[in-house]
Amino acid sequence: MPKSTFFNLPEEKRNLILEVAIDEFAGKDYDSASISQIVARAGIAKGSFYQYFEDKRDLYFYLVELAAEEKKRFLARHPPPDPEMDLFDYLRWLLRIGMTFELSQPKLGWVAFRAIYVERPFGDDVLDHVQRRALDYYRSLLQMGVDQGSVDPEIDMDMAVFIVSRLFAEYGRHLIEREQLSLDDLERGNAAYRDLDITDMEEHLISFLERGLRPYPRTNRLRPDAPGQEPAP
Amino acid sequence: MPKSTFFNLPEEKRNLILEVAIDEFAGKDYDSASISQIVARAGIAKGSFYQYFEDKRDLYFYLVELAAEEKKRFLARHPPPDPEMDLFDYLRWLLRIGMTFELSQPKLGWVAFRAIYVERPFGDDVLDHVQRRALDYYRSLLQMGVDQGSVDPEIDMDMAVFIVSRLFAEYGRHLIEREQLSLDDLERGNAAYRDLDITDMEEHLISFLERGLRPYPRTNRLRPDAPGQEPAP
DNA sequence: CTATAATGTGACTGCCCAGTCATATGACTG
DNA sequence: CAGTCATATGACTGGGCAGTCACATTATAG
Fold first, then answer.
1. What are B6-26's pLDDT values in tens digits?
2. Measuring CA to CA, which residue among A56, A113, A102 is closest to residue B173?
3. What is the pLDDT of residue A107?
């Protein structure tokens, strides 16, 4: 953990340091990320950095935990309208909110992505734990879906968890690359992306998952013009 | 490109250098990968390295192209039994062969993964080109699927390409992590993984894709015991 | 104001790096 | 044999790095 001096810093200075550090660790390996660069860009002395953090590793862990924490907080701040809703409506919400987060703080997203999928410079249980918790979350969602009757019980649960978690995790980066969005612009709120097209794409993704997961004799919720099994209102 | 001296090297020495270099670039960012480490581990002098390659970048590009080339060759060496087969049978074959490759040369896979999804240290058209070709390949497959009637034409093609390509790309690494396989053991052919479970998982993945992509009034090829629409033989 | 504690500083250490180059070794030619 | 060319070598250069430390500055307390 950072030292108390770091948390005593005026908020603006603390945020600047974090911003610069996130930028550094978002774009580079742990080994390549440079404390010298961070202090230079944040306009503080090398020595000061070591008043705030034990060492490079300390900062790194803090950033990774920050990423997990911020995402959790963000989701909590935008709760689903109805916790009892159908699984696929829930997934739609989760994807929407997740993408809003990813598109507003893409660099934190990269820090997390690197830590989970690219490198674990310290072997590290913490990351294992964060990742496991995320997977368990998806698993419990899907299990609820099975119980609700929204997910075909014949589907292999491990595979379903893999598919949903990876697609959700990849989708943000895919979008950013596809639309050639600049991470800096996104963070500053300057990026002009077409919300309409994007929610369209999310719809396609959810629709695909629904086709893949819902039991066969299904109510075709996705083509409301098609003959369904629901009674007319 | 490497210099002619590199290709004139006795095969064994050349392969050792490549092996060590792949290991280095598989585990680290371009910036962190160390020529000094490579030459030390390969038992050659620093100066010799620069007889073989222009510079670090030269080696890096060569490795990335090698990865693409090797994968292409591997696929060509294991052609599908029937090029006219149903899309999902074709995808099953593609996944099977792709995974065989990924599990026998996981480090090359990592080099490619880093180059495509993690970092482009040189802006680089080459990588764009490789990636685009892969995506176009998936796209043409899926388009053929639509023409065959195996893929619902209502499905958004971009989304389908995204889903199939990412899941196929992620599946190998997922498997390796899940089964805690050691990359070194895999490369040496020492890893004991249970082929049975793995092909089971592949079946689950293909089955999911089929559910998600095939048109609705579908012949249920995946649960042959379920009532289908085919006439009894 | 003075004394003490907390915070800020940047020159410095030892280390590793990519890339160079003068020199050495070997291989082939006449 | 001598001469020429290709290849091998490792000490060396300049630069970046994480982390340290003696000292400077600022805040707090008595």
1. 999 999 999 999 999 999 999
2. A113
3. 98
Considering CB atoms only, which of A114, A171, A212 is closest to B211?
Answer: A212
Regarding pTM above 0.90, the answer is: yes
Query: Are residues B208 and A163, on separate chains, in Cβ contact within 8 Å?
Result: yes
CB atoms closer than 10 angstroms to residue A54: 13
Q: Is the pLDDT assigned to residue A74 strictly greater than 60?
A: yes
User: Is B17 (CB) below 7 Å from strand D?
Assistant: no
Subunit contact B159:A211, Cβ cutoff 8 A: no
Where do the structural domains in chain A lie, given as residue ranges? Answer: 63-213
* CA/C1' separation A47–D21 (Å): 9
Alpha carbons A38 and A22: distance in angstroms, whole number? 9
Whether the per-residue pLDDT at B230 is higher than 80: the answer is no
Query: What's the CA B47/C1' D9 distance, rounded, in angstroms?
Result: 6
Which of B117, B201, B216 minimises the CB distance to A159? Answer: B201
Q: Which fold has domain B64-213?
A: Tetracycline Repressor; domain 2 (1.10.357)
Residues of A in contact with B154 (CB under 8 A): 223
Q: Residue A225: its pLDDT value, please?
A: 44
Whether ipTM tops 0.85, in short, is yes
- CA distance linking residue A95 with residue A88, whole number of Å: 10
Instruction: Return the CATH number of A63-213, one of 1.10.357.10, 3.40.50.2300, 3.20.20.370, 1.20.120.160.
Output: 1.10.357.10
Cα–Cα distance measured from residue A227 to residue A98, given in angstroms and rounded to the nearest whole number: 32
